[in-house]
Amino acid sequence: MKNSKYPTYDVMEQQEHWDEHTRSIVSSRLVREHGYRFLTTVEAETLRAWCPLLVDDTRADIIQYVLCHIDETLEKNKGESQRKPGVPPERELLRSGLKAMEQAALSAHGRNFFHLDEETRRKLLTELSQADAEPSSVWNGVPQKELFGKVLALTVESYYSHPTVWSEIGYGGPAYPRGYVRTNIGQLDPWEAKAEP
Amino acid sequence: MIERRYEQEEVDFVIVGAGAAGGVLAKELAEAGMSVVVLEAGPWRDPQHDFASDELSMKSLGWQETRLVSGSDPLTMGHNNSGYGVGGGTTHFTGVFLRFHASDFMTRTVDGVGEDWPIRYEDLEPFYDRSEREIAVSGPKHFPWGEFHGPYPYPEREPLSPNAYLFKIGCEKLAIRTVTSPLAILSAPFEGRPPCINRGFCNQGCMPNSKFSTLIVHVPKAVRAGAEVLADCMVTQVLMGADGRARGVAFRHEGREYEQRAKIVILSAFVVENPRLLLNSANAQFPDGLANSSGWVGRGIMVHSSHDVYGKFDEEVRLYKGTPVLASTQELYATDPKRGFARGYTLHAHGSRPLAIAQGITRSQPLDLKPNVPQAGVGSGSPPVWGERLRHMMLDYNHYSRVTLVGETLPGADNRVTLADEKDENGLPRAKVNYSYCDNDMKLIKHAVQTMSSIIKAAGGTPEFVVPDTAHLMGGCRMGTDPSSSVTDSFGRTHDIPNLYICDASLFVTSSGCNPTNTVMALAYRTAAHLIDKAKKLELQALQSRA
């Protein structure tokens, strides 16, 4: 198990040095909000069993933020920037994809996807990522790679926007109005994360 | 409801899009005393309150509405290559401010590829001077490549970032000359704006106002000179008269339709939306879309190949520190017959934040430095990286350095914007963007990935992976002298409709191998000067005819 090089660094300790807008955006990610506007409970639980494997992290509060982000993105429906022809719009892709994963789990293992053990879930996701998921009757009409890629993109963009994860990778975080002063190789501003042996 | 000054009037100019070009045009034309209305699809933001030091929330600076992307290298759109809101892409560009070289305007003559532009470097030179002076571009005392060798209006940035220093070390070992990048980012105070504090969030919107954008420079000046700038107004159609001239535009604001009449309509809505608007404005007189008698509306779109090579170092690099691009080289810019492909590229040391690098890793490809094996492009390659491998790589975030390519791609007629059958929420057909690299593009990418890897190695790092990516969009309404193979003349005036102009990166004939914003703005200054000159002559004629 590989661990953080910065175990005691907490980027949130710096929040008084951030502008108010940024502070409100970042600290809202720490709130455990549970109301879903787009996802059904079953869809959310399927994702709760899915997203942690994508980022190799099962911490409940961070994964809850990821689920809330996915829900909010789908609810707001602002646009996907790009989509390939023939691939359904993301709401439809996610909805039909989560349903297909449920049915695939039920047909192969007789259990809900979120009741499967980690290894079985990982195997299903690996197959999905390579467009090898079965049975075809369940996956018919669901572009597998696009589905896997869409959930991965939504998960990764929110997971790596969580301040706890920023702290672990030693990212300096928001930097206005302070900026950086010491920027030579090996130099650190006093508030930056220091690697701990 | 929307408050409008010219609701019942015909203004001199209506400009669609308030980005790099639209901002310059609005300022220049308004300051010359013309009546100007600018319509911008996105919002009007206040940098100090609406921007944030945050990648995820600032994705909204890009055009997020869905485009359909096809071809063998389907493009990543959105924040990657477009803007949404007053300022357009200048709100989130890296600020790199380079000039094209003389050869960029004549690739057909020089290298037998692409097409020649109807203008030469000398035609744009005075406007490059202007665009750099008006925003106090910072840069080196001596710039070794191309036609312009400095000095820049403002001194080069100092200090740089750890990633930029490593890049310079690596290049020096390989005898590749580098410079501190010419940037539209202040190195000293200018017009009430402060110098850069090395915050590093150029791509998320500059909060201190140290980086230029038309949002904070040109648009406020345009407004002071009397221009009306209307945000959240999506233009849906160019309105045509029975005489074959443009009457104005139709636009939508908060669900309601409006019209703005104008003597001259200028489209500065960028590479995707200009063709979309022209094609969607087709009528009985122009059944294939406006200004499209050549069939070139939407064709010949180009990107820059923009692969990133990440290398790992024993010591910390910390890619988040400082302005993302601070060191560059154009040593490999010119065609070298020994390399086996035409044209060339710029390389930048380029910072990266957690979201960008993590998403990059999921799409990353192993480095394949063997000759004659193509480096995987955008649309192909190995399966996504996720799970433990992704997390482990990200735990080493602070040990990665990154070099980024800005590579020339050749124009192809089939790389194009068309209308899809699918409609957006307003009932407008979505844009479909088809893109595939050609063989020359792939060879250039391969060469560049090898060079970037050598630079990282020479600096003491281990090149680890490459992220296939693109940057910038150009072409789609290219300029030219021949109306049968181009959409506009060199000033952006469409060959088919005398009072319909296009002015922005969609006019580009070739892509060059460097960042396009300076050239977009120089073209806008040139078009503005042409229009002002024309208006003065007309005024003179009117006076003479009255006398």
UniProtKB/TrEMBL annotation, chain A:
InterPro entries: Gluconate_2DH_su3. Pfam families: Gluconate_2-dh3. This is Gluconate 2-dehydrogenase subunit 3 family protein.
